Amino acid sequence: MSQDKTPATAPSATPELTVPGRRRFLNSAAVAGLGAGLAACNSGSQSAAPAGAASGAAPAASGGSGHAGTSSQPGLHPKPGELDTYYGLWSGGHTGDVRVLGMPSGREILRIPCFVPDALVGWGITNESKKVMGTKADGSLRYTVGDTHHVHASYKDGDYDGRYAFVNDKINSRIARIRLDYFVCDKITEIPNIQGFHGIFPDKRDPVDEKINYTTRVFAGAEFHLPLPNDGKGMDKPETYRALFTCIDVETMNVRWQALIDGNCDLVATSYDGKLAASNQYNTEGGAHFAEMMSAERDACVFFHIARIEQAVKDGKFKTYGDSKVPVVDCTRKSNEDPKTALAAYVSVPKNPHGVNASPDGKYFICSGKLSPTATVIELAKVLDWFDGKLDKIDKAIVAEVELGLGPLHTAFDGRGNAFTTLFLDSQVVKWNVDAAIKFHGGDKTAKYVVDRLDVHYQPGHLNASGSETAKADGKWLAVGCKFSKDRFLPVGPLHPENEQIVDISGEKMILTGDHPVRGEPHDFIIFKRELLRPKQVYSLDDFPNAIKDPKDGGITRNGKKVTVKMTTQAPAYSLPEFTVKKGDEVTLIITNLDKVEDLTHGFAIPKFNVNFIVNPQETASVTFVVDKPGVYWCYCTHFCHALHLEMRSRMFVEA
Amino acid sequence: MSQDKTPATAPSATPELTVPGRRRFLNSAAVAGLGAGLAACNSGSQSAAPAGAASGAAPAASGGSGHAGTSSQPGLHPKPGELDTYYGLWSGGHTGDVRVLGMPSGREILRIPCFVPDALVGWGITNESKKVMGTKADGSLRYTVGDTHHVHASYKDGDYDGRYAFVNDKINSRIARIRLDYFVCDKITEIPNIQGFHGIFPDKRDPVDEKINYTTRVFAGAEFHLPLPNDGKGMDKPETYRALFTCIDVETMNVRWQALIDGNCDLVATSYDGKLAASNQYNTEGGAHFAEMMSAERDACVFFHIARIEQAVKDGKFKTYGDSKVPVVDCTRKSNEDPKTALAAYVSVPKNPHGVNASPDGKYFICSGKLSPTATVIELAKVLDWFDGKLDKIDKAIVAEVELGLGPLHTAFDGRGNAFTTLFLDSQVVKWNVDAAIKFHGGDKTAKYVVDRLDVHYQPGHLNASGSETAKADGKWLAVGCKFSKDRFLPVGPLHPENEQIVDISGEKMILTGDHPVRGEPHDFIIFKRELLRPKQVYSLDDFPNAIKDPKDGGITRNGKKVTVKMTTQAPAYSLPEFTVKKGDEVTLIITNLDKVEDLTHGFAIPKFNVNFIVNPQETASVTFVVDKPGVYWCYCTHFCHALHLEMRSRMFVEA
User: Where would I find the Cytochrome oxidase subunit II copper A binding domain in this sequence (chains A, B) (predicted)?
Assistant: First the structure.
């Protein structure tokens, strides 16, 4: 293979690729970059790909019953009335939400709006949701787009504790917290001085206080480097741009600290002992252009020593940038050469790695090569040894670097010593044994680390297994997020769904059990046993300071042009059958749903004023709007509630 | 039973119902109303309910494997790679969209944004979609909420022709047209002088010109009556309020005419010969309050004689209201007493009917009683006889009025003479034979019209069967939109999904084959064979006047503070790796996706400016925004496209 370092061809000159089948999605620019990556990898090699699977000849893409169909196991879809046994929390991509799926059925049960308005529930319409989302001075929403990628949940004793989930917004550098009792987003924080916030991960215990055996921090990695502060100066000097790694407190959702690094961040992993967090880095070059970002043969995984960083903050060893008051510690290479005082360490990883995942035994972080066909296994005890001055070179923490196939991205685990890695270019999942890989890397070329391969449809990004990111990984179900779904579902125009495939991993061989179309574009997800959650299905009136506990307490009050209308709902009627305001009034409408029955949600819509929202059982919600047109406006219930739902109405009279 | 006409108890005094099981969703107000309805029905009675099903004792609601589970037939879920055989088009309720499902799997393949912004595709963000949605003078969206209920498709020769689908917005009285080649909404019309626009239905051929054997009109029914015009005068005189029935041209999407009626409209049906349209009326009382709307024992189904109405418009026999130029013809009872000149006729139907459906043989419209346990079968030939002066009383067009069970709402057909009606209160689908019902009503009390009953979970609203609303009804699959899903899926907090149940109706007995959770709240849907559509998956550059066909034609042009940035995309790069604008500029960004490969969609996001949208293969889209902050803004691809997707970026420099 060629060692040619010529950058990929310029976009405008990219010829169309004519390779048939699944690889037609890739153009020659990628193949060129990939070639360079392959050439650079020679520390581990095991030709474990089955005939045809990882060779240039791709399986045929046409027809619904492709390669993977042959290993399918039908009949696992639940019968009517059968409950799923696992929850899945899926990020919603640029839908800006989090989705709750039942597993193994793959059925979507709920969407939790976070960063983007949601007309179904009135997210971004009610005053309560606008307060969570954030508004401008004029009361309108600060942001109306989002891009969620990674969803993770809070831990206790190495397993999910059912308190919170967290999800990132890449577009506007925000992190949202979701309460897992009511399945609602209750807090959103915008992180200063970063762009391209991609990976997040909660910590699993405190790095110092052993009694804190649960999540108190969540870490955030930023992909894009920026002038600091980003005020319009130094824009033409990308070599001076910097990226930051961020720590957020999970209770206050305030940013605790940030770390200035060399290169960029991508995904994030945390250790089970709470001492380490890490992020893979695909742009150690600090390149601003496509070709520059893939010029180096090796990039890195940067490790953060949390206790030392927080001591540095306590000791005042930090800077701040721009308007932000957040302390920023120095984690650049140059300032952290002495292991005994280093806040961070950079482990070398092949070409543009994607994904860093913690094994459930707590021993390893595994980085995938993306443009190298390898996975790199890093032993955490050795990383700590380096920080303690017991290991002379940080790269000696690498205990395996083995070939898996083309385009490795993310890794999941079955809790029985096996890892499952997506191969984006091969459109495969490869199952491999971590111990065998370490033996092979150590010189035992008889060690067969590849256990099985499964073709998926097509271009898998993230994958995850039940409990994979906990100490309780149970090796039952694997889901694979396939970015392309060509020919797998009925055609619906140019915009295709993605394909979340479900795989039974309980045996030696992987068995594909289901294809599930999903609206673009989920990225990451977690899957866990249903017993871990204890959801509440009816709110408590006492949780809402503005609740109207008795219909008699409702009515209209006026303060100048500000009018407050309070009413209650009980199927099939609103407590105010009509109410009168004047043109030009600013109306605040507060509604309490007095129905106590589970599932008995009401809606409230007013024509022509962009008012529609729902009120769940025993919930109170409010909306504020200006009435600028006279006339009769029939308010009505938009959420089915009762046989006389259509008759559930009120009238707003707007006097001229 | 009581003939007591006392209105239902006032909302604030409604006691909570303590009846266990499925009926706990209903309170005593409904039961009171229902009792009155039942009392009024005595023209047909056949106790066909199985033991326990329609009696006061409801089946137990707890537990996932309820009554319906016992008749389930597992294993019908498609294997991985198997395509569905039918499309389903589902309305999305207050999500404001239309959803495309594969049937019989029930898998959601696409959501088509219509009335509400959609952050995934950039609907409401791109200039192209804002033009379809409608904007205020300042360029912001006129409406951001919607409430879709009924989706129907265009016809040719009595079957769907794959051109268009149509869907209503109840909140803001809009109708959207969807192109079924690209599965996108291309036109939205706001209907004047109405509120509560609920039912829609396309015509199936022209009432006069036999050569026009396809859809050219779509009809719209308005539930809420209003002062005409609705300008703030006469608000306290609901007896003067009026509702309108509307006809829209499907090509121009302009409103052709409206009809002033007595009472209100609800659902709409059209005849196969194009001569008649009809709407059921649940508020012939013109009541403004809940109790008033259910005071009369019989309401109506109003029939419109299309040819006569259009002749009246031609003859100038119309009024206009307010600012609207739309001709409004007079279809009130008083003005249409002479059958020979009548534009409309009111057929009596029991108490607060819901739903009017055309049988596939073209002979009947069937109205459901809602608060009466009956379905009313109206023979269209007899309605035409009345208009021709051959039938002395319009109510003689009723050929059957038979008891089905509690809370009948909507009716579907299998093309073999059987009808399927949802019983909201009984949480059942009842299968009944139309000819047998007519015989029973005619006096043959041995005629057994009820064929089968199936318990569903719970409170079914709409149902529909494959091809049911066409002359090609094939009696294969039935879907039932159950409004409540308690205990059928994993708990996800207070907001429950609805449950679209799939039923095999190919045999004598109905067989429940699947439960599918759906995000609230779909109402109506149609199901048809996949062969009827011929979707396109790649756009044509020539369809976009502002397309950039060669990357060299891209770049930046300035006109004062207005800046136009043109670029192309080819995975994994944008043709402009950076571009510079000034603080205060109004930037219009035009992007053409030059990738030609199916499924290769790109996104374009800019942090902090609420810009994110997608560009499908060979599509051009644009966005306009003001840059009010200096700095570097990394633009990036939000829609997965390539192994180097993360590296697909550009930079916007905003100079201070």
Answer: 558-656
